[in-house]
Specification:
Blueprint (H helix, E strand, L loop, with lengths): L9 E3 L5 E3 L8 H4 L3 E2 L8 H9 L3 H9 L11 H16 L9 H8 L9 H10 L15 H4 L3 H8 L3 E3 L2 E2 L4 H13 L4 E5 L22 E12 L3 E7 L23 E3 L2 H8 L5 E2 L2 E3 L9
Parallel strand pairs: 3-5
Antiparallel strand pairs: 1-2, 4-11, 5-10, 6-7, 6-10, 7-8, 8-9
Length: about 300
């Protein structure tokens, strides 16, 4: 388990909802995940990125994914929320049936029984090796094995059929970072990132996240973005895990939640500021069972 850094910081949304963060630093994070840097063969030319992005409707993508918006509540499970959201999106891309997953299944396995957060590397490593079980097997917003009861063995077995496969990490130099980030978004590849939440981050400003000053205490999913041109090309769109949640399978049901229905734009520059502290993981495929070679 990563040594707690930020642990689980607690904030209050404008509607009174209490939410947690939970992204910790881990110096050995990159070595813990069997992954390679984002490959050249997945990088796109600028003209192709622009063409693909201008063909997308961000509103339509938000509307489709809003139905599975998660709410971690006050539990510090942000990394596993983001990683499960990434798995949900990969299943969508690959035409697999949507199965709501229990983000706190893996979180309870790595946090030592305490709600002290985790690291981006821990959540990805766990999902690569052990997967994640169906939501109905694990109660929402629990964070240790005692709370989760006697279904853990069944949950562990179920998780082995829902694994991640072959992630890549984004480069840590600016010129390569922006090309890889924009290429992944243009290809509809989901990305787990870290950003820093402060007291001003509870509301968007003109549709954009207000970043706090720090190394990245919260992790979320970049599910898409919008073309803006310039050097960065794309402003990423964040799919957060603070609601609004309309289905109890995805967390605590809440009417208002955070941002624009749980979404908020940011800039490549803002994300790059925390990339040097946390590897950002790009999902590419999933695996039904680790014991057989059947990636999607």
């Amino acid at each position: 388990m990563a040594k707690p850094d930020y642990q689980n910081e607690i904030f209050q949304l404008p509607d009174g909802t209490i939410v947690g963060t939970g992204n910790n630093l881990d110096a050995d994070e990159a070595a813990k995940v069997t992954a390679k840097p984002f490959p050249d063969e997945l990088k796109l030319e600028r003209r192709d990125i622009e063409r693909l992005m201008k063909a997308k409707s961000l509103k339509a993508l938000r509307d489709k994914r809003r139905k599975r918006m998660q709410n971690q509540g006050r539990v510090g499970s942000c990394n596993f929320e983001a990683t499960v959201a990434l798995k949900h999106q990969l299943d969508e891309m690959n035409g697999l049936p949507h199965v709501p997953l229990a983000s706190n299944h893996g979180y309870a396995r790595v946090n030592g029984g305490r709600d002290v957060g985790s690291s981006l590397g821990e959540s990805f490593r766990y999902m690569l090796e052990h997967g994640c079980c169906r939501r109905e097997l694990i109660p929402v917003n629990t964070y240790n094995r005692r709370q989760q009861g006697n279904k853990l063995r069944e949950a562990d077995e179920d998780g082995r059929h829902r694994l991640l496969h072959e992630p890549y990490y984004l480069p840590d130099n600016w010129s390569d970072f922006v090309v890889a980030l924009a290429s992944a978004i243009a290809r509809d590849l989901p990305i787990n990132v870290a950003w820093h939440v402060g007291s001003g981050s509870m509301r968007l400003r003109n549709g954009y996240i207000v970043h706090g000053r720090g190394r990245g205490n919260h992790s979320t999913l970049v599910h898409s973005g919008k073309w803006v041109g310039g050097e960065a090309m794309i402003d990423p769109d964040i799919q957060n895990s603070w609601g609004p949640c309309i289905d109890p399978l995805y967390g605590v049901v809440s009417r208002n939640g955070w941002g624009d229905g749980g979404f908020g734009l940011t800039s490549a520059e803002a994300l790059f500021a925390t990339r040097r502290f946390h590897p950002f993981w790009v999902g590419t495929s999933t695996m039904i069972d680790k014991r057989t070679d059947n990636p999607f």
